[in-house]
Write a structure and sequence with these properties.
Layout: E1 7-8, E2 37-38, E3 86-88, E4 94-96, E5 110-113, E6 117-122, E7 130-138, H1 146-155, E8 164-169, E9 177-180, E10 184-185, E11 191-194, E12 222-229, E13 236-246, E14 252-262, E15 278-282, E16 290-295, H2 299-308, E17 314-318, E18 323-327, E19 339-344
Parallel strand pairs: 1-6, 5-14
Antiparallel strand pairs: 2-14, 3-4, 6-12, 7-11, 7-13, 8-9, 8-12, 10-11, 13-14, 15-19, 16-18, 17-18, 17-19
Length: 351
Amino acid sequence: MGGQKTTHLSTSSTGKGNATCYGNKEVGTPFDPKSWYTNRVQFNGENPYYNLGQAKPWSSCGVLHHGGSDDTTCDVDKGNDPWTQMSKTSKGGKTACDGRKLVGKSVAPTIWPQGSVQEVAWAVCANHEGGVAYRLCPVESVTQDSEATEACFQSHQLDFSDDITVIRFSDGKTKDKEFQNVAVLDKWGKQWKESIIPHSCDGKDKKFKGGCGDVKQDFPDFSQVDHVRVPDLPAGRYALSWRWDCKLTPQIWSNCADIEIVEPTPEPTPQPTPEGGCSFQTGGTVDKNQVNQVTAESEQECCALCTAQTDCTHFTFVTTKNVCTMRSGVPEYNDAKNRISGELMGSLASV
């Protein structure tokens, strides 16, 4: 996925990577929240991982705990409503407790074409193990109604495009490491990826240096990168919700990013092929009777363009520049490198 923008959603103040993530200094937000999660939540007496997607989060986009687990300003189980509460941060003063209130604020959302495969990532500071999922919801449906909002996200949960999770290091130098990681299914058949970083560092659990343990630090050394398929949803603005159902603690961690889904760029219409085709040979031509010069993807397309061009009888295609030069008259060939020349052998049946 060379050159592809990674949508990075993190459990902490910043994840290393190209991000469109609330609470991430890389997109210029004026605050540095420590974490976004739902605390002290279980389903059927078990931690969320054991019933993936069934425990109810306080917010699909996370609830702010700037001071760690001792910060109860936004806690639902302390009688507070995150939607109406504000939490003071060390940069920029107070900010909304509920991440849903930040949805749609990005002036430059990440662009995802319909039907494309996109790269997503997350980084962990306190290692609770468990499974993660990525979901979409139209921004206008991300509302104060937490249950309706979560239902919207769950109705558009994304499939993973492969069975690989990549460990990408934040130093920009260490080579990526790939690990087999087959998606697991929840009760509705929707896909989750398990964290590949074990809490225990005993023996075989350690996959690479630093790849196990509690990993408590503000700036993780690596991220877990996956690829998701973008469904053919209507074009428009969406929130992307990352949800981590924890295995070792009664917590759901979550965060959101601004996404804009667009229609894919249509494939160019191929040029018609001449009825009689063209004869090709390696090398260029030395004659000067140029009638046109355009870009082309191949010598076959150059042949078709020549056929459609008035007075064109032969052409030269420069393979290193994708340039098609069309000429008239009788060709005089040479042995120039990176060139393929051709002559028309027939005419188009139709144009």
